[in-house]
Amino acid sequence: MTDNADNIRILGINASPRKYGNTFKLLYIAIETARKYGAETELIHLYDYEIKPCLGCLSDEQKACRYPCVIDDDGRIVLEKILKSDGLIIATPIYWYGPSGHLKNLIDRMTAFENMIFIDGRSWVEGKVAAFIAVGSDSGDINTISYLSIVFNSMGFVIPPWALAYHAREGDVIENKNALLDAANIGKIIVETIRLVKSKKEWYDPTLLSKEYIKDIIEKAEKEAVRNKNKQYPERTKITFKLLNKQE
User: Fold this and answer.
1) CA of 207: how far to CAs of 4, 212, 217, in Å?
2) What is the pLDDT of residues 175-214, one digit of tens each?
């Protein structure tokens, strides 16, 4: 544990309409642990902000979707907080095996960050770190965390090991020691991961296919696939015909 903040900023987002439930409790534990490990932290309640649905600007014109988002509402405030952070801890209740609708609105609006690839060559959230907490009374925890992990990684976020905590049963989460331990570890791990990756400025290269060595790799992949097919396909065809003949 360290008191040296290293200018690390972590934003905790409570995507539950309740400011006192299990979702909040796990997020608070994660955020406070991150603070103990040296980060500057902020916890916001997403339902305090009016965030209108995405208009899908990029479906009409790719470059129309950019930061700042064309919609002038509280979403701009939250997006700015995300932009200024090094990492996010997002906690959501489980609504029908997925995140809350209000969080989904925010995620869709975050496309303005990712789509900057087509404006200036990189996602504006690339290299930031994210971790997730999902809470419900029944099931859908892994579905929700899987969805969030895929989406945020697709935007350019780094997802570290053990970046998840969940509680999918009735009762007070304070009685679920495994969930408490996972939440506390999220706070620790996200700070440590940020320290590891903060010096890395660029990850995804949108020009990679123009590189001669990549063109060469693609050509070799196609040739290798043809060679493999010539060796393997005749035997697979025999097996297929045997199966078809058995069915007749």
Assistant:
1) 38, 11, 15
2) 999 999 999 999 999 999 999 998 777 888 888 889 998 8
Residue 28, burial from CB neighbour count under 10 angstroms (0-12, 13-18, 19+):
middle
CA 23 to chain centre: 18
Distance between CA atoms of 107 and 114, rounded to whole angstroms?
11
Higher pLDDT, 166 or 243: 166
- For residue 57, give every residue at least 6 positions away whose Cβ sits within 8 Å of its Cβ, in sequence order, or none: 64, 65, 70
pTM of the model: 0.86
Q: Are 161 and 182 in contact (CB under 8 A)?
A: no
pLDDT tens string 207-237: 888 999 888 988 999 999 999 999 998 988 8
The CA distances from residue 224 to 157, 213, 219, 228, 241, in Å, are 33, 16, 9, 6, 26
Residue type, 7: N
